[in-house]
Write a structure and sequence with these properties.
Layout (H helix, E strand, L loop, with lengths): L2 E5 L11 H19 L3 E8 L4 H10 L3 H13 L1 H4 L6 E4 L6 H11 L4 E11 L4 E3 L17 E10 L5 H9 L4 E3 L1 H12 L5 E2 L1 E3 L9 E2 L2 E6 L1 H6 L1 H4 L12 H6 L5 E7 L3 H14 L7 E5 L2 E3 L2 E2 L22 H8 L1 H11 L6 E3 L1 H31 L15 H20 L3 H22 L1 H4 L8 H22 L4 H10 L26
Helix pairs in contact: 6-7, 7-11, 12-13, 13-14, 14-18, 15-16, 15-18, 16-18, 18-19
Length: 521
C-alpha cells in the first residue's frame, strides 16, 4: 500500500480565510480522496501559521491581544474542514501544537553545521516576511504588496544556502523532486543558476514582540517564521520526538518510500522549492517527492488580499458581506457549488477570476442542468416505465449511441487519473464530465418514451437495456466524481440505489437551482 502524504501551506492568520485559501484546500482534498480511492494510505495535513510578525501587527491594529486574535482566525480556518467537506487527517497550529516547538528546535540543531551569526542590513517586507534585494523590488516596492520595505539592521542567524545549489539542481532536474507545472520548475532552476545567497533564519526577539520560537541556545533571537512554518511538514509527524528515531508517523510518512506532496501558491515557491529542500538536506532528511504550484485567484478582476498587508487590494466588503469568505459562499450556494467552481474553472497555469455570478452559472449549467437533470430523468423514467425497479442488463441489445456512452464510462476514470497525476483538476473534471454529455445525448438519441410505447416504435427489451445503461452511467459518475463532489455524489448514490422493496427512491432534485428563475422576473 503506497503511503501518500499531502500537505497544504499554512496560511497566516492575520485575517479570516478567503476564497483563495479554499482553492488549495479543495485541490489537496481531491488528491487525498483520489489516492484513498486507489487504495493508497493517505495522510492529508493542513493548519495555520501562527508565529508570524504579520499576525502581531494585525492584532495590534485590531486592538486585540495576539493570542486571542490568532486563536479566533485560526478557528475560522479550522472550520473550513466542515464548510468545504475536507477529509483533513491532521491540523497543525504552529503556536499551540505541542509537537511543533520541540520539532523545530531539533530541526534547528540538526542544521547547526550550516548556521552562523552575522550582522545584516537589508530591506524587509513584513507582508512577505522576507528580505528583498534592490534588484528584486519594483520601483523600490515589494512586488507582492507594492509597499516600501523597511530598512533593517540587525544581527541574525544565517543558513548556508549557498552550499546546496548543486544537490538541489540535481534533485530537481532529475525529477527526484518533481515540480509542476514545468514553468515553475524552470523558474526554480533559473533561481538556483542565478546563485543562492545564504538567508537569515532568525529575528531579534525584541522586533518580533516576543512572539515565536526562541532560537535554541540564543533566546534573544526567535526562529524566522518561514524556517518555523516549513518545519510543520515534519514536526506534525513527530520529527524530533524519540531522539533520532523521530516518531512512528515520521518514519511512515516522511522517511518511508511513499509520496510526499506539497501544494502551494506561486508566491511561496522559493521557500518550498529552494529553502525547504536545502533545510532538509542540511538536517539529513529525505526531500519531498512532489511540489504542485497553483496560481492566484482574483475577484472581480482584482487581487484578493487580506487586510493588514498594506496592498491596494480589493475590499472584500465591496462585493457584499462575506462574498469572498468560503463559509459564507458555502452557506449561500452550497459546498458542491463552491468546490465545483474551484475545480472546474481554475486552470493549471494562469490566474482565474472569481465572481459569484460565475460560481452560480457554473453550478446551474453543469450541476443542476447537467448532472442533476440526468439523474432525475433516469430515475423518473425507471419509475414511470418500470415501477421503480432497475431493469436487468447490460448484456442485452445496445441502443444507438450506447457504444459511445459505454466507451466514455470506461475511459473517464483513467483520463481523470492521468490528469490528477499532473495536478490538472480542470482536465480531470472535464474527463468525467464527458459521461454526462454522452448520457444526455444517449437519452435524446434512444428516445425511451417511444420504446415504452405500444406503437411500432415500442421495444420493451431495448428500453430495459437503455435504462440499465443509463443507470450504470450514473453509478460510474458517482464513483468518478466522488473525489470532486463528495456531498453531491452521496445524494446521487442514494437516488440510484434500490431500497428494501427493490425499487429506487422517488426522484427528487439532487441540486437546487441557484440563479433566480428568469421566468418569474
Ligand atoms: Zn511583500
Amino acid at each position: 500500500m503506497t503511503a501518500t502524504y499531502i500537505t497544504t501551506t499554512l496560511p497566516y492568520v492575520n485575517a479570516r480565510p478567503h476564497i483563495g485559501h479554499a482553492l488549495e484546500l479543495v485541490q489537496a482534498d481531491v488528491l487525498a480522496r483520489y489516492h484513498r480511492g486507489r487504495g493508497d494510505a493517505v495522510r492529508f495535513q493542513t493548519g495555520t501559521d501562527d508565529n508570524s510578525l504579520k499576525n502581531v501587527l494585525a492584532a495590534g491594529a485590531a486592538g486585540v491581544g495576539v493570542r486571542e486574535f490568532v486563536d479566533r482566525n485560526a478557528d475560522a480556518f479550522q472550520a473550513l474542514g466542515g464548510t468545504l467537506s475536507l477529509t483533513v487527517d491532521d491540523f497543525i497550529r504552529t503556536s499551540r501544537d505541542p509537537r511543533h516547538r520541540p520539532g523545530v528546535e531539533a530541526f534547528w540543531r540538526a542544521c547547526s553545521a550550516d548556521l552562523y551569526p552575522q550582522r545584516y542590513t537589508g530591506l524587509y517586507c513584513t507582508g512577505c516576511e522576507q528580505f528583498y534585494t534592490q534588484a528584486e523590488l519594483r520601483d523600490g516596492r515589494c512586488p507582492e504588496h507594492e509597499t516600501e520595505p523597511e530598512l533593517v539592521n540587525e544581527e541574525n542567524w544565517f543558513f548556508r544556502l549557498s552550499r546546496y545549489a548543486a544537490p538541489l539542481r540535481e534533485a530537481i532536474s532529475t525529477g527526484r523532486l518533481r515540480i509542476e507545472p514545468a514553468g515553475r520548475r524552470n523558474e526554480v532552476l533559473a533561481l538556483i543558476d542565478g546563485g543562492l545567497a545564504d538567508f537569515s533564519v532568525s529575528r531579534p526577539a525584541m522586533r518580533a514582540g516576543g512572539w515565536g520560537i526562541p532560537v535554541p541556545g540564543d533566546p534573544d533571537q526567535v526562529v524566522y517564521v518561514w524556517f518555523d512554518a516549513l518545519c510543520n511538514y515534519v514536526t506534525a509527524l513527530g520529527y524530533g520526538q524519540d531522539g533520532e528515531a523521530h516518531g512512528e508517523a515520521y518514519r511512515r510518512w516522511w522517511a518511508g518510500p511513499g509520496n510526499r506532496v506539497h501544494l502551494l501558491g506561486k508566491g511561496v515557491l522559493r521557500f518550498h522549492a529552494v529553502y525547504w529542500p536545502a533545510m532538509l538536506l542540511a538536517s539529513g532528511q529525505p526531500l519531498p517527492t512532489g511540489i504542485f504550484v497553483h496560481d492566484y485567484l482574483t475577484a472581480g478582476g482584482r487581487k484578493i488580499s487580506k487586510s493588514g498587508a498594506g496592498a491596494p487590494a480589493l475590499d472584500p466588503g465591496a462585493l457584499g458581506p462575506g462574498a469572498l469568505e468560503p463559509a459564507a459562499l458555502a452557506a449561500e450556494y452550497g459546498t458542491d457549488a463552491v468546490r465545483w467552481w474551484l475545480l472546474r474553472e481554475v486552470p493549471r497555469v494562469g490566474d482565474a477570476d472569481f465572481t459569484v455570478e460565475r460560481l452560480v452559472a457554473r453550478a446551474d449549467d453543469e450541476l443542476a442542468n447537467g448532472l442533476g437533470n440526468l439523474v432525475n430523468r433516469v430515475v423518473a423514467m425507471i419509475h414511470r416505465y418500470r415501477d421503480g425497479r432497475v431493469p436487468s442488463g447490460p448484456g442485452g441489445p445496445v441502443a444507438p449511441g450506447g457504444e459511445r456512452l459505454a466507451a466514455s464510462c470506461r475511459q473517464a476514470g483513467d483520463a481523470a487519473g492521468d490528469a490528477l497525476e499532473k495536478f490538472d483538476f480542470r482536465q480531470a473534471t472535464a474527463a468525467v464530465w464527458s459521461i454526462v454529455d454522452e448520457a444526455n445525448r444517449f437519452v435524446n438519441g434512444s428516445r425511451p418514451w417511444e420504446l415504452a410505447g405500444t406503437g411500432p416504435g415500442g421495444d420493451p427489451r431495448l428500453l430495459d437495456a437503455v435504462l440499465a445503461q443509463l443507470l450504470d452511467a450514473c453509478a460510474v459518475l458517482c464513483r468518478e466524481l466522488a473525489p470532486f463532489l463528495p456531498d453531491a455524489t452521496a445524494r446521487v448514490a442514494a437516488q440510484i440505489t434500490p431500497g428494501g422493496d427493490g425499487r429506487l427512491p422517488v426522484p427528487r432534485p439532487v441540486f437546487r437551482r441557484l440563479a433566480p428563475n428568469r421566468d418569474e422576473s
